[in-house]
Amino acid sequence: MAGELSSVCSKAIGDAKDDLNHLSSEIWKNPELAFQETHAHNVLTDFLENKGFKVERNYIKKTGFRATYGSGDGEGVHVCVMCEYDALPSLGHAAGRNLSSEASVAAALGIQAAIKQQQKLGKVTVLGTPATEGGGGKLDMINEGCFDGIDFAMLAQPLNENIAAPVTLNILRVRVNYSGKAAHASTQPWEGKNALDAAVACYSNVALMRQQIKPTWKINGIITNGGLKPNIIPEETEMLFYLRAPEQTDLMFLQQRATACFVAAAKATGCEVNFEFLDKPYHNVVHNSVLANLYKKHAEALGLQFSTDEEVLQCSTGSTDVGNVSHVVPCVYPAFDIKTQAPIHTQAFTEASSAPEAQQPVLQCAQAMAMTALEVMQQSTLKSDIKNEFETIDAVHTPVIAGTNPFP
């Protein structure tokens, strides 16, 4: 029966490959920013409903959704396949979320086909999670209890390597505002207090600080408002920084260091500073090794070759709200190679995410995800192993401080 169900699972994905490609293309051609993914929401929910899923549109958030198939009586295993579909400003799908959505939906089709053959396997939920790029749609869903009763969750990210358990970082976002005093920049500059000088000094402070922080810590920033006209001393400026680190304790220390940079720039220029550490910090992904090893086994059997380069394996792939989910339920979050050398978040990666060459690996990844779920559904000991590891690993960290000016 196990082999028969695997064949049914693979066939369902293969039979839908043209429709899945079209789905991915529709999302790619219509890039939408966080919480604005109306077209993606509609095409995904229509597709899943046409495939026999029970669909709840506008779920929790306007562009969120939930699609389910299978028994809801508690028997078997409840698998959640997450879907991401927001794009980046100006670059479009430079994170390849059109492919991520395609992989998730394809995996769900495979799992659904197996459940049709054997209802006692359990249930599959496709959870549409908007606003991964900073909006934290998954955090809203966690807070609403959307992951209650789920045994494990899955999602895959397009990349230029195959990695079963990629490293991700905790991230904290902070908005920094400097207030000075306007004056004519040529006639009476001494009457002004230059908020742009404060922003530039802050940026320089942070740049100098990078020399004395750990290589795994990251801090990136931009000036979002630098003034109005060259002949007016800027009275107000705004900056946005991302702080990242592998562990929460590291991130709190980096937060303190960055705060000192913000305050010092204000003191040096005579300006006032106000900074706010924004809500919805993302946590690092706690990969469940049972799930990651199962995924890798099935992916290799399908022809995917995984990187063995330690430098690649230890390099961060960024930050994601999948990390927050992984602290609530066991997760597998592999990266799959879409046959490009282009780095993520570039125009070249946007183009690669719509290329025909990406279709084979995305379907192989989807099959591996579906086979992973199917094996857990068929072997009760695996479900116990996954749960035991999740409960053993201390996934609870000291929360990062959010709010205004937490350090005087």
TrEMBL record:
Matching CDD domains: M20_ACY1L2-like
Molecular function GO labels: dipeptidase activity
Transmembrane segments annotated in the record for this chain: none
Pfam families tied to this protein: M20_dimer
Residue intervals of the Peptidase M20 dimerisation domain: 170-264
Gene3D superfamilies the record matches: 3.30.70.360, Zn peptidases
InterPro entries from the UniProt entry: Amidohydrolase (IPR017439), Bact_exopeptidase_dim_dom (IPR036264), Peptidase_M20/M20A_hydrolases (IPR052030), Peptidase_M20_dimer (IPR011650), Xaa-Arg_dipeptidase (IPR017144)
Family stated for the protein in its record: Belongs to the peptidase M20A family.
Protein name listed in UniProt: Peptidase M20 domain-containing protein 2
Taxonomic lineage of the native organism: Eukaryota, Metazoa, Chordata, Cephalochordata, Leptocardii
Gene encoding the protein: LOC118431956
